[in-house]
Amino acid sequence: MDSFVEKMAVVTGGGTGMGRELVRQLVASGCHVATCDINLDAMEETSEIALAGTQFDVRLTTHLCDVSDEADVLAFRDQLQARHHVEHLDLVFNNAGIGGGGSFVTDEDRMAWEKTFDVCWYGVYYGSRVFLPMLMRSPKSHLVNTSSINGFWATVGPRTPHTAYCAAKFAVKGFTEALNIDLRLHAPHVMAHVVMPGHIGTDIGRNSIDAHGGPDLKQIRKNLAERGVRDDQISDEELNDLVIAQGRRFRDEAPTTASEAAAIILDAVRQENWRILVGEDAVFIDESVRGNPEFAYEPEFLKRINDQGHLGFFRRGT
């Protein structure tokens, strides 16, 4: 697929971050796009930004959809077919995701764990299940599923449990790799890609908090206590401000911007690279984990990554 002009794409999680940039760059390339999110205001902002930056006469529609709910994804499909008057798709980007549900052992409320897993895994599963028939109606099409470095390295540091997100991202990676064999046998004109970003400058931290109904201050205080940090002098308001500030730092200190990440992904799709590592940190960590997988979860492993100039944010945050 050398050109996206007049192609038809779906992007989930298009309200912010990589999703917004995928929408913007696709529209700027002449591609028609249907994007969904749970935040209508964010999608409207995405639409304004994308349409202001293109010289093409394209269709861009926004849709309210919780990708962890199959009925919502089916309704999204029906809406885009009606509004775009299409029966086929050329590109599907299952991009939506949130964090949360870190500890499987100590977290008292399993709802956060299951919410994170449902969005990050079932969002990809339902998106693939619902839109694959439309992709198969195109002469040549691409299914692009977002995993993570946490799809092959199940941690953000030895002092921070990260089980729900990692479990989902491992599932996305394994599913997409296996799906490519299935597609070669039964629909060779469709190609599946697995995207594995490193630290990308997005608002996933803040978006995740909003998706879970606000910061879990009780769990945050418990985590601080486990690390030997006294929190008795910190008010709930101050703690909430610290959480927001950390989310901003995650976005602003990232070595790869959301715009750069989207450009890497789209270039890889054009070149038909099915395995897409995004960022120098992702490349280095991938090589390091494959080189010595048993060492990958030792404290010295993260230090080695930090010494190479990667994941400095996580060293300070763990």
How would you sum up this structure, described in words?
- It contains twelve helices and nine strands.
- With 318 residues, the chain is of the alpha/beta class.
- The protein has one domain: 3-Layer(aba) Sandwich (Rossmann fold).
- The strands form two sheets. A seven-stranded parallel β-sheet has the order 3-2-1-4-5-6-9, with helices on both faces.
- The relative contact order is 0.12.
- The model has no long low-confidence stretch (mean pLDDT 93).
Describe the protein's topology.
Elements: E1 8-12, H1 17-28, E2 32-37, H2 40-52, E3 60-64, H3 70-84, E4 91-94, H4 110-136, E5 141-146, H5 163-186, E6 190-197, E7 200-201, H6 204-211, H7 217-226, H8 236-252, E8 256-257, H9 258-270, E9 275-278, H10 280-291, H11 299-307, H12 312-317
Parallel strand pairs: 1-2, 1-4, 2-3, 4-5, 5-6, 6-9, 7-8
Provide the residue-averaged pLDDT.
93
In what range is the share of β-strand residues?
Answer: 5-15%
The CATH topology name reads Rossmann fold
Unreliable residue stretches:
none
Instruction: Supply the number of structural domains.
Output: 1
According to DSSP, the number of beta strands is: 9
The chain-level structural class is alpha/beta
Cα(first) to Cα(last) distance is 42 Å
The CATH class turns out to be Alpha Beta
According to CATH, the homologous superfamily is NAD(P)-binding Rossmann-like Domain
CATH architecture: 3-Layer(aba) Sandwich
For the largest sheet, list the strands in their spatial order: 3-2-1-4-5-6-9
Coarse shape? globular
